[in-house]
Structures are given as C-alpha cells and as structure tokens.
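Just curious: can you write whichever protein you like plus the matching structure tokens?

***
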Amino acid sequence: MSFHSKPAERASLAPELRYSSQTIASFPLLARSGEIPVYRVVRNARLYEQIVQQIEESVLNGSLKPGDQLPAERDLAQRLGVSRTAVREAVKTLREKGLVEAYSGRGTFITDGTSQAARQSFDLMVKIGQQGQQEGLPHLVELRLVLEPGIAAMAAERVTEEDVGAMREAVAVMDRSQENAEAYIEADLDFHLALAEAVANPLILSLIDSIVGLLREQRIRIFKVEGGPQRGQFHHKRILEAMERRDPEMARCAMRAHLEQVREDSQISSGGKPSGKHTPAGSKITA
C-alpha cells in the first residue's frame, strides 16, 4: 500500500520527510481487493507489541518507507481497534528501536533505521562496557583498528578530487582550531567520514555513520590530553598525503599508526600509561 505526497505540505517539512495526504484512508480495517493491508486489527493481551510487529513487518516488506508518516495517534488507534495508550507505547518502542522519529507539530515518521538502530546499539554497548571497568572506548579503538586501515586503503584507490578537497578542508579547520575543541572534533569527524565516502560503499558509510556518536565522545576525551590534537594532526596529514598520492599501502599504514596513537591517548585519558611507540616527535603541527 503506497503513500502519496502533497508537494506543498512536503516543502514545509524537513527534506527527507514525505507527508502522506492519505493518512487515514491508507489504513483500512480490511484490504481492498488485490491489496495487502499495512495494518490489521489487533487482538492480543500485549497490544503494543503487536502494533510494533505490524509496523516492523511493513517496513521490511516495503509497505512503509523512510519518510512515510504514520497516522495521528487517535486515528491509528481507531484503525487498529486499540487504545491510544497502546499506540503511545508502541510508538515509544519504535522510537527506541530507531524505526520512527516524532517531530513536534509535524507527526511521526519512518526513519532510515539501519544506521540509527546500529548507532543506538553501539552506544548502549559502550555505556555498559564503561560501567566499572571503563572498557567501552578501548573496544571502540579495537573496532576501528579492524575497520579503518582497510577503509583508508580502499579510499586511496577510489578517491576523487572532490573527496581529497573535503579532506584538505577538514585538515585546515583542525589546524586553526587546536584550541577550540568543538570545531576541531567536528572537523576530525568530517575527515574520517570523507574517507568512508571516498570508498563509495554504502554499507561501509552506514557503519561508520552509526558510530559517529561514539567517535565524538572518544575525541572529546583525547582532545583534553596534552598534545592530543597535535599528534592527531600529524597522522591526519600523513593519511591525506596517502590520498593525494593514491597510495593504498601508505594509507593503510598511516591509518593504523593514527589509531595506535588514538589508543595511547585514550589510555592516558583513562588514567593509564601509554607505550609511547606511536607518538611523533615534536609538538604543535602547523600547515
């Protein structure tokens, strides 16, 4: 069952949202001939779980797509034959799963749940790991060591001038923001996302995008370590040079060295003792 958008209404929303002009009509109690209903009347003790299941199934089979709007709470309750309380609980669960997002004054919309759900799962794992033993961020470093050297090598083979330009701009911002944590960290994230984009593999980009929140937290801690931003820039510039040369092995080695430096600075930020093997000589790096 498809949704149809009104251009005038869609323009007033965020660009990625498609507003349905058939919010009520698209959710009949019975399907018309030849159609598969998006929703069915719920008859179960745990009503909200059945609602969640129906919406999940509709997302999986393509009946509901990212940007589609759910009916208003009252309308959805009527169509499903349940209470508004059950609908509210279902929407809350769907939000926690990253499948929908509610916008004040606009409504509830299906999201691109792949990266959002993964992001929430990674966030939860790190928070659990941090309790007591502070293991979450070291686990993140290990994950990055597995992924990012290979990503850098592939990026060096596929990178475009536009990609290199984005990396140069990020490095330039970091150069002039070594006393500005917010600006430096956002540029750092942009640099690594530009690498992932250069690979031109949507699964890799989605995976990196899913851990952006964790990467930001990691960088906040490292930025507070004395010399951390300068050490990071030393490695960023080596990675950038590898991209400019289109040298996969140089890119792989440069990224691995960078992440070893991240590991050491993470240990310092947690009160540990670094090995010092991957810390470049010298202090502040300039353009």
Summary: Residues 1-34, 281-287 have pLDDT under 50 and may be disordered. Residues 134 and 215 are 15 Å apart (CA to CA).
